[in-house]
Amino acid sequence: MEVLSRLLALLALLLIGTGLRLSGVLDERRTQRLNDAAYYVALPALIFVSTYERSIGDLLTPALVVGMLSVLFATAGVAWLIHRDRSEGRRRSVAITQSYHSNLGYLGLPLVAATFDDQVTAVASVILGVVSLIQVPLTVVLLSTINDADASIARNSDSSYAIP
What we know:
The protein has 164 residues and is mostly helical. It has helices at residues 2-23, 28-51, 56-59, 62-83, 89-100, 104-115, 118-146.
Protein backbone atom coordinates (compact mmCIF):
# COMPACT_ATOMS: atom_id res chain seq x y z
CA MET A 1 0.00 0.00 0.00
CA GLU A 2 2.92 2.32 0.72
CA VAL A 3 4.20 1.92 -2.85
CA LEU A 4 0.80 2.94 -4.19
CA SER A 5 0.63 6.01 -1.95
CA ARG A 6 4.15 7.06 -3.02
CA LEU A 7 3.25 6.56 -6.68
CA LEU A 8 0.10 8.61 -6.22
CA ALA A 9 2.15 11.37 -4.57
CA LEU A 10 4.51 11.43 -7.58
CA LEU A 11 1.56 11.51 -9.95
CA ALA A 12 0.03 14.37 -7.95
CA LEU A 13 3.33 16.24 -8.30
CA LEU A 14 3.23 15.65 -12.05
CA LEU A 15 -0.33 16.96 -12.21
CA ILE A 16 0.65 20.05 -10.23
CA GLY A 17 3.50 20.63 -12.65
CA THR A 18 1.13 20.24 -15.58
CA GLY A 19 -1.25 22.73 -14.01
CA LEU A 20 1.57 25.21 -13.45
CA ARG A 21 2.66 24.75 -17.04
CA LEU A 22 -0.86 25.27 -18.41
CA SER A 23 -1.39 28.36 -16.22
CA GLY A 24 1.82 29.92 -17.49
CA VAL A 25 3.68 29.90 -14.17
CA LEU A 26 6.13 27.36 -15.59
CA ASP A 27 7.17 28.82 -18.90
CA GLU A 28 9.64 27.09 -21.22
CA ARG A 29 12.70 28.63 -19.55
CA ARG A 30 11.62 27.68 -16.02
CA THR A 31 10.66 24.19 -17.12
CA GLN A 32 14.07 23.71 -18.72
CA ARG A 33 15.81 24.91 -15.56
CA LEU A 34 13.80 22.47 -13.42
CA ASN A 35 14.54 19.62 -15.84
CA ASP A 36 18.23 20.49 -15.82
CA ALA A 37 18.29 20.57 -12.01
CA ALA A 38 16.55 17.20 -11.82
CA TYR A 39 18.69 15.55 -14.50
CA TYR A 40 22.11 17.07 -13.78
CA VAL A 41 21.93 17.60 -10.02
CA ALA A 42 19.24 15.60 -8.20
CA LEU A 43 19.45 12.31 -10.14
CA PRO A 44 23.28 12.06 -10.04
CA ALA A 45 23.22 12.99 -6.34
CA LEU A 46 20.68 10.25 -5.64
CA ILE A 47 22.76 7.70 -7.56
CA PHE A 48 25.98 8.78 -5.84
CA VAL A 49 24.55 8.76 -2.33
CA SER A 50 22.94 5.36 -2.83
CA THR A 51 26.05 3.67 -4.26
CA TYR A 52 29.24 5.37 -3.00
CA GLU A 53 29.93 3.05 -0.02
CA ARG A 54 28.88 -0.15 -1.73
CA SER A 55 30.84 -2.77 -3.58
CA ILE A 56 29.94 -3.04 -7.26
CA GLY A 57 30.24 -6.82 -6.88
CA ASP A 58 27.47 -6.81 -4.30
CA LEU A 59 25.21 -4.65 -6.45
CA LEU A 60 25.84 -6.01 -9.94
CA THR A 61 25.46 -9.78 -9.89
CA PRO A 62 25.50 -12.02 -12.97
CA ALA A 63 21.86 -12.95 -12.32
CA LEU A 64 20.88 -9.27 -12.28
CA VAL A 65 22.71 -8.58 -15.56
CA VAL A 66 21.13 -11.60 -17.26
CA GLY A 67 17.71 -10.63 -15.91
CA MET A 68 17.99 -6.99 -17.06
CA LEU A 69 19.22 -7.90 -20.52
CA SER A 70 16.62 -10.64 -20.90
CA VAL A 71 13.75 -8.34 -20.00
CA LEU A 72 15.03 -5.49 -22.18
CA PHE A 73 15.63 -7.60 -25.29
CA ALA A 74 12.46 -9.66 -24.77
CA THR A 75 10.41 -6.47 -24.55
CA ALA A 76 12.09 -5.07 -27.67
CA GLY A 77 11.54 -8.38 -29.47
CA VAL A 78 7.85 -8.56 -28.56
CA ALA A 79 7.47 -4.91 -29.64
CA TRP A 80 9.14 -5.71 -32.96
CA LEU A 81 6.75 -8.65 -33.50
CA ILE A 82 3.70 -6.56 -32.65
CA HIS A 83 4.72 -3.63 -34.85
CA ARG A 84 6.42 -5.50 -37.72
CA ASP A 85 3.46 -5.01 -40.08
CA ARG A 86 3.43 -1.23 -39.85
CA SER A 87 4.07 0.02 -43.35
CA GLU A 88 5.95 3.17 -42.43
CA GLY A 89 9.42 2.58 -40.98
CA ARG A 90 9.42 5.78 -38.95
CA ARG A 91 6.25 4.84 -37.08
CA ARG A 92 7.45 1.26 -36.57
CA SER A 93 10.81 2.35 -35.16
CA VAL A 94 9.22 4.82 -32.74
CA ALA A 95 6.59 2.30 -31.62
CA ILE A 96 9.26 -0.30 -30.91
CA THR A 97 11.47 2.19 -29.10
CA GLN A 98 8.61 3.45 -26.94
CA SER A 99 7.85 -0.13 -25.92
CA TYR A 100 11.17 -0.79 -24.21
CA HIS A 101 12.67 2.64 -23.51
CA SER A 102 11.72 3.22 -19.89
CA ASN A 103 11.75 6.28 -17.67
CA LEU A 104 13.95 4.85 -14.95
CA GLY A 105 15.60 8.16 -14.13
CA TYR A 106 12.79 10.63 -13.64
CA LEU A 107 10.19 8.30 -12.11
CA GLY A 108 11.59 4.83 -11.46
CA LEU A 109 14.60 5.54 -9.28
CA PRO A 110 12.95 8.33 -7.24
CA LEU A 111 9.96 6.08 -6.55
CA VAL A 112 12.26 3.26 -5.45
CA ALA A 113 14.26 5.64 -3.24
CA ALA A 114 11.11 7.03 -1.64
CA THR A 115 9.66 3.60 -0.97
CA PHE A 116 12.44 1.11 -0.28
CA ASP A 117 15.64 0.96 1.75
CA ASP A 118 19.12 2.10 0.72
CA GLN A 119 20.20 -1.33 -0.57
CA VAL A 120 17.27 -1.52 -2.99
CA THR A 121 17.93 2.06 -4.13
CA ALA A 122 21.58 1.19 -4.77
CA VAL A 123 20.61 -1.82 -6.89
CA ALA A 124 18.04 0.30 -8.74
CA SER A 125 20.76 2.88 -9.44
CA VAL A 126 22.95 0.19 -10.97
CA ILE A 127 20.01 -1.04 -13.03
CA LEU A 128 19.48 2.50 -14.30
CA GLY A 129 23.11 2.74 -15.34
CA VAL A 130 23.35 -0.64 -17.04
CA VAL A 131 19.98 -0.44 -18.79
CA SER A 132 20.79 3.08 -20.03
CA LEU A 133 24.06 1.82 -21.48
CA ILE A 134 22.09 -0.76 -23.48
CA GLN A 135 18.94 1.26 -24.28
CA VAL A 136 20.70 4.19 -25.91
CA PRO A 137 22.76 2.20 -28.46
CA LEU A 138 19.79 -0.09 -29.12
CA THR A 139 17.62 2.95 -29.81
CA VAL A 140 20.22 4.47 -32.15
CA VAL A 141 20.52 1.20 -34.05
CA LEU A 142 16.75 0.75 -34.35
CA LEU A 143 16.02 4.32 -35.39
CA SER A 144 18.83 4.42 -37.93
CA THR A 145 18.21 0.99 -39.48
CA ILE A 146 14.42 0.78 -39.57
CA ASN A 147 13.97 4.33 -40.82
CA ASP A 148 14.95 5.23 -44.32
CA ALA A 149 17.57 7.53 -42.85
CA ASP A 150 20.59 8.84 -44.64
CA ALA A 151 22.54 8.27 -41.42
CA SER A 152 25.01 5.46 -41.16
CA ILE A 153 26.10 3.86 -37.93
CA ALA A 154 29.53 3.03 -39.36
CA ARG A 155 30.36 6.26 -41.23
CA ASN A 156 29.99 9.96 -40.69
CA SER A 157 27.90 12.16 -42.99
CA ASP A 158 30.67 12.76 -45.53
CA SER A 159 31.60 9.02 -45.54
CA SER A 160 35.31 9.82 -45.23
CA TYR A 161 36.03 7.48 -42.32
CA ALA A 162 34.49 4.72 -40.24
CA ILE A 163 33.78 5.10 -36.55
CA PRO A 164 36.27 2.93 -34.64
